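Today's session is about reading a structure prediction critically. Students often jump straight to the picture, but the first step is always the sequence itself: look for stretches that repeat, for charged clusters, for runs of hydrophobic residues. Only then move on to the predicted structure, which in these notes is written as discrete structure tokens rather than atom positions. Here is the chain we will use throughout the hour.
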Amino acid sequence: MLMASNAPSDGPARGAQPEALRRLLSARALLTAFLLSLTRDLELAEGIFQDLCVAVTEGREELDPDAAGFDARLRALARRRAFAVLRARGIDASGLPPERLVDRVEAIVAELSATPAERWTRRKDALRECLHALPAHLRQVVDLRYVQNLSVGQIAARLGHESQHVHAALERARRHLSECLRRRAAAAEEGA
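Below is the predicted structure for this chain, in token form.
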């Protein structure tokens, strides 16, 4: 029977990065799924993940958990290790998923691993950029309606327009914003 030791430990193993390892382990399900999509072999995907954990524990892979892009760096390391293992096993490139598909899967994993705050920030930034791209007169109507909280009648009175004109302007602004956000999402998906 194993007994717990009360002796003080010397701390983590030489080269260990406790916070990096903690974050790596918390991403296990997503990273393993990502590796499975590359290798098409659960046992192999698990083995590569475990190998990555050992490399981080032993300090062979330096990861700064506080650095921007930590999760992307984890996925890149996992991806490189997966392809290295597949090459070592003699699996040629024709048996691997196309690079574009791998990039898309990685983008999906990145989105799934993003915190709600990160997703919200990306959406706010996209909306801010799309608002700035609106023509000035539409931006003004959007500001009066949604920032200053004026009614359509109040906006019409302030701008000296008919209410129908304000309704039409708001509809055009919403359509422009919707199209802009859709284009941005498609571009992000293409770039992934």
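Discussion point for the tutorial: Residues 163-191 form the longest helix (29 residues).
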